[in-house]
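User: Hey, quick favor. My workstation is busy. Could you predict this chain's structure for me?
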Amino acid sequence: MLARLHVIISSEENSQVDQIKEKLKQINSEFSISPVRSYSGLKDHSELYCTLEIEKNDVKTLLDKLNNDWDGPCDDCICYGFNTVMFDHLVYCLEFVLFD
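Assistant: No problem, here it is.
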């Protein structure tokens, strides 16, 4: 199944964004990561998207590596770094969608 992860980062510095991209690849080497762009919703933030093919029974394991407390079902969920534990302190928000 195709999955998409939207990552909002609390920085626009290339070195910090590269750090996030590297950590994502360590979590799952199959991530295809989009180019980074400024995030228009928040000043001094950037965003990127990751996609990957994943089996439905592997989704929870992946989500647990990214964050400790997601809101919503495993196939359409969101989490924020200000009240949860992200895989990196610079990650502001994650949105995960699994497509059938």
